[in-house]
Specification:
By secondary structure, this protein is an alpha+beta fold. The chain has helices at 56-63, 69-72, 161-186; strands at residues 19-22, 42-52, 76-80, 90-93, 101-103, 106-111, 115-122, 128-139, 143-154.
């Protein structure tokens, strides 16, 4: 099943879908070679994207306003810490149909108006690692594409398929909520 895609649209045409399963991450994948958290076990990647009628700067302002997450974000309910490379965050996620989880990932990359990426681990490297990315791509006409992805690796990945499906649904919910918030805040009064 290496390289296979699984689609399960939750929002009509609002996002693209894909769950990839492979033993090793593709060498040409965004972020490939930036992390060594996938040395053992299986790798799975979740990815969702949505187009937003606002420039990258507006999207970035909402994505990095951690204090406001409880007001609008149904998936990542809380983040504390600084969006700064090497910083430790405290992140609380609430995937639909699953129990809430709080973890403390380390920020791996910050590029203003483009990307925020962190790496979280369960216990020690190689057990269950997740590298989460929030990317913003500029589009014509002052629009943006928001891409949320996560690469999971480690020996436990094969045993958490149900959790990954719920996380995928959480990505969809967050992306739709982000689009609504950014577009509402960008609308002329």
């Amino acid at each position: 099943m290496a390289g296979a895609s699984v689609s399960s649209p939750l929002l009509d045409g609002a996002a693209t879908h894909g769950l990839r399963r492979s033993r090793y991450p593709p060498s040409n994948a965004p972020g490939a070679g930036l992390s060594r958290c996938y040395d053992s076990g299986e790798v799975r990647e979740l990815r969702r994207e949505i187009e937003i009628d606002a420039p990258p700067e507006r999207v970035w302002a909402v994505v990095t306003d951690f204090a406001a997450y409880p007001e609008w974000n149904p998936f990542i309910r809380r983040i504390s810490g600084e969006p700064r490379e090497g910083a430790r965050l405290e992140v609380r996620i609430e995937p639909p149909g699953a129990r809430a989880t709080t973890f403390q990932p380390t920020v791996r990359a910050v590029e203003a108006n483009r990307e925020l990426r962190w790496l979280g681990r369960l216990l020690v490297p190689g057990v269950f690692d997740g590298e989460h990315s929030l990317r913003i791509e500029p589009l014509e006409g002052g629009r943006s594409r928001f891409v949320q992805s996560e690469r999971f690796g480690g020996v436990l990945v094969a045993f958490v398929k149900g959790m990954l499906a719920k996380t995928e649904a959480g990505f969809e919910q967050m992306n739709a909520a982000l689009k609504a918030r950014v577009e509402r805040s960008s609308a002329p009064n």
